[in-house]
Design a protein that fits this description.
- There is one protein chain.
- By secondary structure, the protein is of the alpha+beta class.
- It folds into 2 domains: about 40 residues, no CATH class; about 110 residues, no CATH class.
- It contains 4 helices and 4 strands.
- A 4-stranded antiparallel beta sheet has the order 2-1-3-4, covered by helices on one side.
- A hairpin with a 4-residue loop joins strand 1 and strand 2.
């Protein structure tokens, strides 16, 4: 009985990952994706092909947080960026990269307060707590260079979200 349950789980797991990951949209696969969506998202096994198709990403972006403390001091806190991490750190934080990429989208605005509270907790101490957190998005367009002498545009900067920290947020 136990062996059967383990085998059923493994077969389900492999089918779920396979159907979720293959870039085919048949009605059967779409129906199965809908059925396994809660499990795949909960377990962190989701995968998207948006880096490659149907349209590759055309911007390079990253997030930072501006932390304004009670004493008026200002600190910049950087979300981890894969290009600045060692190979071992990249391996550990790959899911975090996906989180930060997705966090920047307007459709994920409900996550911004939680991200701001997380930054506040990481950057506060009892004598000088964080008062305001600003999530700041930096991005540049990725354009093919036809002319080697052309200079890329400077990065664009946008305050994505501003959060006023409450004492309860720091507990």
């Amino acid at each position: 009985m136990r062996r059967t349950a383990i085998n059923v789980f493994l077969v389900f797991h492999l089918l779920a990952i396979t159907c979720w990951s293959i870039p085919i949209n048949s009605p059967l696969i779409t129906a199965f994706r809908t059925a396994v969506r809660p499990y795949v998202l909960w377990s962190g096994l989701f995968q998207s092909w948006d880096a490659f198709a149907p349209e590759p990403k055309h911007i390079n972006s990253y997030l930072e947080a501006i932390v304004i403390h009670k004493d008026g001091s200002i600190q910049t806190w950087k979300f981890p960026r894969m290009e600045q991490l060692s190979l071992a750190e990249r391996y550990q934080k790959e899911r975090y990269r996906k989180y930060v990429e997705n966090l920047q989208g307007e459709s994920n605005a409900p996550l911004w307060p939680d991200a701001a509270r997380h930054v506040a907790r990481l950057n506060s101490d009892a004598s000088n707590p964080a008062q305001i957190i600003m999530l700041v998005r930096h991005w540049t367009e990725i354009v093919p260079r036809a002319d080697a002498s052309a200079h890329p545009e400077p990065p664009h900067v946008q305050i994505l979200y501003e959060y006023k920290v409450t004492p309860e947020d720091l507990k």
